[in-house]
Design a protein that fits this description.
250 residues, alpha+beta, 9 helices, 32% strand, DNA-binding, transcription regulation, WH_DNA-bd_sf, WH-like_DNA-bd_sf, Bact_HTH_transcr_reg
Length: 250
Amino acid sequence: MQDYLQSEFRRQSDARRAPAYQHLRRTLQHAIENGELTAGQALPGERELGKLLDLSRVTVRKAIAGLVGDGLLVQRQGAGTFVAERIVKSFSRLTSFTDDLRARGLDPRSTFLERGLGEVTPEEAMALNLSPGAAVIRYYRLRTADGVALALERTVVPAAVIGAPDLVENSLYEAFAKLGIRPTRALQRLRAIAFDAEQARLMNLPEGAPGLFIERRTFLDDGRVVEFTRSFYRGDAYDFVAELQSEPTP
């Protein structure tokens, strides 16, 4: 590993004129893309990298911060810096963002960009099977894990289900559980998107960065719709999988 980093850093430095932190950033990115650094692997410490490549800790820290912002590295307090693992989300199981991240040992967080009570729109009424004029609660959240932005979510819930906007503190599904509500089925649609300027700013990504859009409607056993969510996931962090089965031969 040390030999690879030294030779790749020299190659980057010889190939173009740029600040040293950019050479290191490209070196580490190439190491990840070429499998020299694998998912979950710890990086050498800042002091060790600096000594190996004759760089200051400020330069090393700046290169690492850029890759953390890109989602390629994650920093865990007291443990170090690690190559980010892509999050595999199954389309075959009904799970929440919080469930998915905690199952991978990550710390999911929500930053509320908007949260409030309002009257249902025609589109929301159709999605939630509500009558015109019904009250709904809307949430617009930035979802992060270990400080890295992973998704933007716009969620609409019937006010008759949640009651008050502040009942959701971090996870909608945890709020459901506290109220004795258990969603059992969901319909989802997925398509590729490019983040617009405002979304990219919130996600700390370049405008036009690839993403995945998922629209979800979640149901209870009695058929009531309790959630209408439109999520925008960063494309470099998620793999979506689904189990497929053929129809039995007659």
